[in-house]
Specification:
It is a single chain. The chain is built from seven helices and two strands. By secondary structure, the protein is mainly alpha-helical. β1 and β2 form a beta hairpin. α1 runs parallel beside α3, α3 runs antiparallel to α4 and α4 packs antiparallel against α5. The radius of gyration is 16 Å and the shape is globular. It comes from Pseudoflavonifractor hominis. Pfam families: ECF-ribofla_trS. InterPro entries: CHP04002 (IPR023812), ECF_substrate-spec-like (IPR009825).
Length: about 170
């Protein structure tokens, strides 16, 4: 017979897996908003959402697996940096607040929007062997991060209005 703790861990693992699959699909293939030099995708929005919903280790696993698989399918050279960068993004957010939108998650959104472009810019320098590759990568990722931030704010507000987080914690994650 499983204990309550084992059931909760299994539920966290299942929800993490579902988010990882959704992150993979939206990052690699679905709902892209193109802009010159790149595109905004909903994968990072889902990373922010899972970071606000699940404990950090589960959210980090969902982010790393989902985004890593997306890059493995589309831009394999970026797979390893993405595994690290996307898993780090979840540390800026908290799942302990009763809503998705709270002071910590607003600050987390700003920090993620600075960290991600800077990290990808540094990785571009290493991957391409040129300091000149920093700014183009930084700029494209910054636009993507800002777009994802705006979409996250809209989605999180809508989700908070439905009290979905409280319902999930009450019925799914306990």
């Amino acid at each position: 017979m499983k204990t309550k703790s084992q059931n909760i861990n299994l539920k966290y693992i299942v929800v993490s897996g579902l988010f990882a699959a959704c992150i993979t699909m939206t990052t690699a293939y679905l709902f892209h908003i193109p802009f010159p030099g790149g595109y905004i995708h909903l994968g990072d929005v889902l990373i922010y959402m899972v970071a606000c919903l699940l404990p950090t280790p589960y959210a980090a696993a969902a982010a790393a697996i989902g985004a890593g698989l997306a890059d493995l399918l589309t831009y394999p050279a970026w797979c390893l940096p993405t595994l690290v960068i996307k898993s780090c993004l979840v540390f800026f957010f908290t799942s302990r607040a009763p809503t998705f939108l709270c002071k910590r998650n607003y600050v987390g959104l700003v920090l993620a929007s600075v960290f991600s472009p800077a990290a990808y810019g540094l990785c571009a320098v290493v991957l391409y062997g040129s300091i000149q590759s920093f700014w183009p990568q930084f700029a494209g990722t910054a636009i993507q991060s800002l777009g994802n931030g705006v979409i996250f704010l809209i989605v999180a507000r809508a989700v908070d209005m439905t009290h979905l987080k409280q319902q999930m914690e009450k019925h799914v994650l306990t």
